[in-house]
Every structure is written in C-alpha cells, then in structure tokens.
Amino acid sequence: MSPPSAPKDKPKFYLTTPIYYANSRPHVGSAYTTIVCDVIARYKRMCGYDVAYLTGTDEHGVNIERAAEAKGITPQQLVDANEAIFRDLWKLLGITHTDFIRTTSAEHARAVEKLVLRTLELDRGRPDAEKAIYKAKYEGRYCIYDNLYVSDTPEPANCPTCGRDAELISEENYFFRLSAYQGKLLELYKNHPEFIQPDFRRNEVRSFVESGLKDVSISRKTIKWGIPWPGDPEHVFYVWYDALTSYMSGIGYASESKKDEEKFAKFWPADLHMIGKEIIRFHAVYWPAFLMAAELPLPKQIFAHGWLLFEQEKMSKSKGNVAYPEPIVKVLGNDALRYYLLREVVFGQDGNFSREALITRYNADLANGLGNLASRTLAMIEKYFAGDVPAIPEGSHQKVEVQQVASAALQAVGQHMASYNFSGAVQAIWQLVGAVDQYIAESKPWKLAESSDPEDRKKLGAVLWTAGQALRFVSILAHPFIPESTQQLWDRLGQSGRVA
Ligand code: MSP
Prior knowledge:
alpha/beta; Isoleucyl-tRNA Synthetase, Domain 1; 2 domains; four-stranded antiparallel β-sheet; binds 5'-O-[(L-methionyl)-sulphamoyl]adenosine
C-alpha cells in the first residue's frame, strides 16, 4: 500500500474558482465551487504538483453600486466589508487557495488595461473589418442582477435566469468583435474536446456558437463603478472583460515585479477554470475569444458544474432560499459539509441540498462509519498492545482481501479524480472502510485476545496491524475530502507530521 506516486520534476497545476460578486455574503451554493476546488488543489498537491489556486471577489458593476446605495454606503465600503466576509469564510472552511484577487485592486486594473492595449496594438495591423475592438451604439435589454444581455433590441424582455424585467440600455460602447471568432472557437472545441467539460455542456456551447455570434459590448458609459478605459475615461470596462481578466491578474499578469512575472510565466495558462453552469458562455466563448484577439495562450479546461438546489430551485440570495455554511460548520465541522457536498451531489449535475440528508450522511459515513471503525481499532491496539502493535512479516496472517480492496481504492480514486467524479472517488474509499469493518467483525480480535495460544496472539497482531495500515491508507486517500479528521486519525495512528 503506497500513496499516489509523485512525479519527479514538479509539474504545475493552476486552477481557479469564479470570482464572487461582492454584493452579498456567500452561502452554501457559493462555497460549493470553492470547496470543490480545494479538494482538487489538495489532491494535486498530494500527487506532486506545484499548485496555484486562485479565488477572489468581483467588485465592480451596477449591482454593487445599487447594493451600496441601498445601504447608504459607498461601493468601496460595501466591497471592503464583503471581501472580508469571503476571506473569513475561506479561512473558517480551511480553504488552501494560494492567491486572492480583488477587481478593485490596482494590480487588477493594470492587467485589464494591459490586455486591452495589447489587443488594440494588434488591431493596428488588422484590416478594419477584422479589428477585435471598435466603437458603436448599443441598445438593448440587460439584466442587472445576472449581468446578462437579455436581448439586443430595445423591446421589453425578461431575464431568462431570474425572470425579472430587464432594463433598457442605450449608449455608445466599445464592442468586441465576437462574431469574427466563430470559426476559431468551433475549431478549438473540435481539436480540444477536453476544453469544455462535461461533454454535454460542450455540445450546448457548440450549438450556441454554431447558431451565430453577436459582437459584445465591453464598456459602459452609464456606470461609474469600474475600471476606466485607457485614454477614454468616460467609459469603464463592462463587467465580463474586467472579471475574466482576474484569472491572469491574480497570478501576476502586468505586474512590475520580477517575482510576479515569473509566476505568471510559470502558471499561465490555467489548467482548470471551475465554474457554475450559468456562466459557461462567458468562459467558453467570450474568454477564449478575448485571449485569441490578444494572442495569448488559452486555458486548458473549463469545467461547468451544476447548481445546489434548495427545494428544487437554485439556491441564491435573490431568491432568499439560502443556507449558510457557518452554522453547519459550527455544529458538525468542516469535514461534514465537504463530505456531504462531494459524496451526495453527482458532480456536473444539479443536486439537492438538505440539512436532513447532511446529518444522515454525517452520522452514517463519518461518525458511525470511519469514526467508529477508527475508535474501535485504536482502542484495541491500545488495550492489547499498549498502543504499539508490532509490524508483521509480509504475507503472514495478512488478509489479502483488505489489501486488494485498498489497491482497488487507490486505482479507482486516481481514475475518478481524473474526471472530477468526486462521489465515485469517495465511494471507492468507503468501500475500503467497509472492508476493514467486515474484516474485524469476521476475525473477532476480542476473541483472539482471550486465547492463551501463541498463534492466536500472532493472529491478533496481524488483524490489528492490517486494520491500522488500512486506516493509515484511508487517511491519505480521504485527506483531500476530509482534511481535518484524516489529520486527527493520522496523529492517533502515531504517524508523524502532516498527512500532506
Ligand atoms: N462574478 C461572476 C463570476 C465571474 S468569473 C470571472 C459570478 N459570481 S457569482 O457570485 O454569482 O457566482 C460565483 C460562483 O458561485 C458561480 O460558479 C456560481 O455557479 C456559483 N454558485 C452560486 N450559487 C450557486 C448554487 N446555488 N449552486 C452551485 N453553485 C452556485 O457569477
């Protein structure tokens, strides 16, 4: 039994969460993407990768302006307060991000400017009809809650995401010539099917692109709360051009420091942008096109997961049907929430969130399942061997089935993690927990302990040694999912240092 093998020269892995709107505090739905990415980051580190894990806050736009107005404070005060809440929550949840970006920071503004100036510079060499950025009049309907163009005509329309009336917008904007990228995007999806995952999402995006792309506005005159357009400060950047660039500014793009430059050179392009399904178009259509226009390398993969539903509806602040992580974590601990979200929701699909199901899972798998097995095994090792069960010679008295299940679990975890099938990985680990449980029940160490036959004493040692080794193995495999309890188990098994 050995842990996942580490590659010799450390390869890099760069993953991101979306940057969260800083107009309200995070709920379980928003914590979901961050928890998922934390599991991946921890797993990749254990596999020997040098991981950069970026998260952050999206702090511009009209909904921030409005939320601040409603509270009688400035937008800056609002985003400062909310950004602190996000940071505190990630700390409470034990999230191991390496970088955090705020779109109101100076380094981010510099990156957005640099990206657009680079594109404009490249445009100089392009014929007019192929210039990526141009100025024109925009009239259309726009949902300020979802930051979504609902229609490009002035007639009244409802937002397809939230159903509310979309607002009329009429002004001169800078446009990005998205229509010119249809062919290149389709080629990208064809040559790199892994670019959009899961597969059914790629098919949706492909159909959308095949049906024709409209150019998109990337600046606003009516909004004040944003990054000014270089050389034309009446305009501020429209939220998606601004927001998406955070994936580069967050790891040093446009920074003047040598260290950041090296960091960007090392980690860009991102290996994985993990997002929720409602923002896939921005990531899988706009973002590669923006980068193509700037002749920069494209991210390797966009993975769109489903929504956490509360009574069959998307959990969201605006609908008021939210659960918050803090009280759950206070009562049951971080691992319970992580375990539940990863075990219960089939990753990629929508999943229902229920407090009852969370408690049931916690009791069945963590408290009674792994917790109980660990306590019983450790108590017997203490009682019968004063806490120090002797190692047994390879092959003697060992239960090969336990070893086989352990090897199978290791292999299955590797396979499932490669496709981000978290529930599959967790189930494979818990099969090992079940196998050890059964092994103990069948070999009845408490009976062996009553015997005066020296062979039985050897057998007793073998049973507890095998169970202890299997638990050590479980604590490694399960560590990315339940880092706190596996570390405790690791310590109680007498192992030194950190699991990972
Ligand atoms: N600011 C943009 C993203 C810009 S990325 C360059 C945004 N922010 S958000 O706060 O609305 O959403 C951030 C993430 O939280 C998205 O991936 C979204 O899917 C996720 N979730 C918010 N509510 C959710 C659920 N109820 N369930 C699962 N994920 C959810 O979009």
